């Protein structure tokens, strides 16, 4: 595994409680400039791995490597200039305006006290343009719908001008319209900016539609990784999720069908 370019983990272990490991010897490399889906059953360690990759958690053993450098040796602002993260649930004062929230994405570049300069303002404008949130600039975030607010959090992450974007189930609370809008936006950002994007997803069909690579976790270990069309096969999904599965092709695109063991497909 060549870890000199991009983001990688080697022999990563982590436990919230002693003797109860969540991740056990995880090794993976996330292809630069591509979209990687991180999938697996609930409790398999997906969000924990994302927090380790972002430098929010520190591993018990093993390494998180950014361009071959151990993440633990880097200061927090330096990490945030390279890696941005959007969580499933985020919090900010409800009276904060959209523009002010997006401006917070510039903190790794200017600190907390220094006012924005022209470069910061340009980065904020571009992030809001990329996410189609300019029209919300002066609204309080409490006035936004769930889908609109997720785009604003994404804009804040883009304002960091990081080249790696980590997304933790950002479509979970959205209806299908906003899910597809968010995923299309993420794919466009990857295409236009060549960002390395890693996102936790539960919908395997959405992973097929929008992702290039996949890492599948089961019980805290990597059970499969690589190009999504090659790696994601019915037996692998059945093992990962404990269900019966079938993959069909419709209009040239793969789709997954699942059923309970002994039940009907649905």
Keywords:
4-stranded antiparallel sheet, alpha/beta, 266 residues, globular, Rossmann fold, 29% strand, 12 strands, 10 helices, 33% helix, single chain
Overall pLDDT, averaged? Answer: 93
CATH superfamily of the largest domain: P-loop containing nucleotide triphosphate hydrolases
Largest sheet: 6 strands, mixed
Q: Please give the CATH architecture of the largest domain.
A: 3-Layer(aba) Sandwich
* Poorly predicted spans: none
Give me the secondary-structure category.
Answer: alpha/beta
CATH class of the largest domain: Alpha Beta
The H-and-E topology, N to C, reads as EEEHEEHEHHHHEHEHEEHHEE
Q: What is the number of independent domains?
A: 2
Q: What is the 3D shape?
A: globular
For the CA atoms, what is the radius of gyration?
Answer: 19 Å
Q: Distance N terminus to C terminus?
A: 39 Å
Question: Strand arrangement, largest sheet?
Answer: 6-7-8-3-9-10
Helix segment count?
10
Approximate strand percentage: 25-35%
What does this structure look like?
With 266 residues, the chain is α/β, with parallel strands linked by helices. It has 2 domains: 152 residues, P-loop containing nucleotide triphosphate hydrolases (Rossmann fold, 3-Layer(aba) Sandwich), CATH 3.40.50; 73 residues, no CATH class. The strands form 3 sheets. It has a 6-stranded mixed sheet with strand order 6-7-8-3-9-10, sandwiched between helices. It has a 4-stranded antiparallel sheet with strand order 2-1-4-5. A two-stranded antiparallel sheet has the order 11-12. It is globular. The termini are far apart.
